[in-house]
Structures are given as structure tokens and as C-alpha cells.
Amino acid sequence: MDGRLARAIFVTTLAVYLLTSGREPPWSDANIQYMAAESMVRRGAVDIPKPWPDDMPKDAEGKWYSTYPLLTSVVHFPGLALLAIAPQQAKGLAKPLTSHLACSLFGALACVLFFQLCRQRRLSLRASSLATAIVAFGTTTWVYAHYSYSEIAQTAAFTGLVLWWLRTDDDPTNRSARWLGLYAGFLFATKYIYAPGIAVALLVLAWRHRARKRGLIPLALHAAALAAPFVIASMVFNYLCFGSPLATGYAEYFDKYWGENPMTRLWAMFLSPGKSIFLYSPPLVLGIAALPRMWREHRAACVAILAAGAPVLLVYSRYKLNGDWAWGYRFTVFLVPALALSVGVLVDRWLPALTRLRKAVLALAIAAGVAVQLLGCAIYWDHFTRISQDVRIAWLGSPNRSGAIIPQRADGRCDGCFEDVHQLEWLPPFQPIVGQAWLLRSIATDASAEEAEANAPWHRYTSATFPIKSSYDRARLDWWGMLWIKDHPQTRTLGIALLVLFLGGTVAGVSLWRRALRPPPPADPPPAG
User: Fold this and answer.
1) What are the pLDDT digits (tens) for 239-250?
2) pTM higher than 0.90 for the full model?
3) What distance lies between CA 337 and its chain's CA centroid?
4) What residue segments make up the domains of the chain, in order of their start?
5) C-alpha span between 365 and 331 (Å, rounded)
């Protein structure tokens, strides 16, 4: 029954993620990863046509390279293959959809792995199912499955690492060690910053089984055999790009970007008014109530999550840039399903005696989570970010950027630096969720820039008006259907066909999900006599 439900979860979440996929092509970090994939597929080369970060110098041959691991580009190969066979007149529709394909797949995988994690902890089938639906549609998993960023691949890999850490802890076999090594290598190859968490998690696991002594060696060899291809491929890519297997092209930026006060950054991750993880994944608040029970009954899971996740958060806590130009705190997205295990524990406890109060609390948390994710998917986050910059400068003054750690762009601003994004993290008039709701409402009612500005959230604090037209007029709904409805009407027939396919997949997936939850029919009684 678990296998049937896992397959239903994959089909449903993948279909919904594709159905709600975005209209925007890859931007920012995702664009660099995608360009590297295009170079490899189309030219058999690894260089890219633009620098990232913007001040990255060319190498001796006058070329730029991606500072992101190889896997973040390789995952786009299937999408690029589909794009290559699409008719020329369909390219405008095909590129955004195919560039989001990998992230939709990883989002669905993350949901399946979370379901398996709940079942590994022996939560009931119904509780595991509901908790998985909450993760799929009530947390940032949905938003990051919507875009082309690599955070959703990191999320799937981290969830898989925790799952197989626990399975190896319960049953240390060569098979479980191989799966653990696979997810460890996969996670490392999505972002090198996970290396400390992987190392600590594996050391803690080895310590817990130290009584096996030499019996640990075969397990370690099996894990290493599956992790090695990821590590070797990453090192070869680094060598081709930067001349050394250990070079990433990012070393010169460490001194500039690292050095934050850890407590300030950790506070921002979990409790800042603009970027708290609980604001962007509201159901996680429920999990706080289950933490004592988690520690008593699922201590091994707590150890696994802390061992693998805490070192990564500590590294990020020294990062001066806040992962902005994103929906929520981008650097905590990987941790969301693992943290949601406590939500599963709470649901498992509540379902047998679901009082009216508990129903109301669950419904409120789920509704808030879904609403926040729909806002995140509805409009690409850059639009409100740019508007908030325009208003903050006109209202509070232009900052002194002479000492900024990020070079200024042609427009005089420095994307990602404190001077130009602090309002999104710390200032309530520019709270991104509230701002996104205002922007969506304004676009949906076809309001002019002046009409929209008159109802903007900063007017809770000021009666002054500000010019937002240049940034506001760029904002648009971010649903792939707008590609064939408005942007590329010549693809309407293909668009409608895909819409029917995605809707059909959603209906089929939900039907399979419901059937998998039905109890098996009672067995026929044995014949008399």
C-alpha cells in the first residue's frame, strides 16, 4: 500500500506543479545554471556568455564559467532535449515549460521522500498522507518547484539523505549504505556548502554504530562507491572551468560575502518580519507544538536532522547576503520537509481524536500555507522587490553604496547587498507576502500604476505618494498559460493540449491517491465445514 500511495503522490504533485508552472524563463542564478547546460548540450563547451557575479573577471582565454556545481546544469539536459525537438513556432511556449521541468520533478521527488520519511518513523498512513499534502502545497516546496532554481533539487537531496540516514541507522545493510551514499553525493553535487552537514551526519551515524567496529568498513565502502561519481564529476567540472579540481571560482568572494554575525542571520532566517521561514511555510508553526514529542519518540530523526542541517545553517549564518531576490529565505528551503516531520507527528497524534478546535487549527494552517504559496507562484518575486526599492529610495532616501560588497549595476543599485534589499527583511511596510498580495490584486483588477500605488501597503505609514510606474508596468502574472493566451498565441492549440494533459494528470493522481488510502476489503470468511 505504501508503494501505491507513493506513486500516487508523485503523479499528483508532478501534475499540479506542471499545471501551475511559470511563464518566466530562468533568471539570475538559475539563468547561469541554464546557460551552462545550453553550452554543454549545444556547443560541447562549459563556458558561458556572461559573468556571474557581475564583476567576475575573464580567464586567460577570455571566458567566463558557472560558479555553480555541474549537477545544477545537468538536470536541465532532459528539458533542453525536449526543447530541441519542439517546432520553431512553439519555442516561446516550450522554453519556459522545459526549463521548469527538472524542478517540477525534484519537487515531486521531495514529496515522495517526505512521505517515506513519515512512514519510516511509523506514522499512520493517513497522517503521512496528510502531512505530505501539507508539505507539497502548504510550504515553499511548491514555489521552488515552480521556478528554475536549484533549491528544490537541494531539498529533495537533503530529505533523501535524512531518510536513508535513518534507514541505515535502523538497518545498517550494504543496500541502505548505498542509498545513503547516493543521496550524500547527490546533495554535495547540488551545492558544495552541504559538505559539512554530510560529514557531520556520517560521523554521527558511525559513532552510533561504533560497536560494529570493522563491520563499518564495508558499509563505508558501499556508501563511498555511490557518492564517488558525484564528487568526481564535480571535481572534473571544476578543473575544466577553473584549472583545479578544488577551485570553484567563488574563492575570491569569500572575504567579501562571509563575516556576518551568526545570531543576526539566524534570527533573520527564523524570526525576521520579512523572511522568517515560518511566514513562508505557515504549517511549520504547528510543528513547534510537537517538538517535545519528537524528541521523546523520534530522537534518532532529531539527531539526523540536526547533524545534517545545523552545520549548513551555521555556515549560512556567516553569509552577509541574505539570499534575497527570492520567495522567503532561499537558504532554508532545503530544510522545510525535514522540519515538517514534526507536523506529521502532530497530525498523527491528532487524527484519531480530531476535535473541532484541532480541525480549525489544521484548516487555518493549511489555508495560510496554500495562500502564501499561491502568492509566490502568481507573480515572479523580482517585481515587488524592484518596486520596494523604488519606494524606499523615494521615501527614505538613496543609500550610500560607495562601500557596498556587490558592484553597482548600470542603474546605480547593487542587487542583493544590504543597501538595496534590507527593507524586504526588516521593514514591515515592505513585507513581501503583503506586497505580493497587493501587487496581485492590482494586476488582477488592471489598476494603473497610480491607482495601485494609492492602495499600497506602505500607506499604512505614510500619506506621501511615490513613482512606481517603471517597475510596476513590468509586473505580470507568472502562469505558463499566459504564454499561449497572450505572449505566443500561435501556440494556443499546443497550450490547450498540454493544459488538458496536466489537468488529466492531476485528476488521475488525486484519484489514485484517494484509492490508495482506502482500507483493503475484508477477506472472505473461510468456507464452512
Assistant:
1) 999 999 999 888
2) yes
3) 10
4) 2-376, 380-475
5) 23
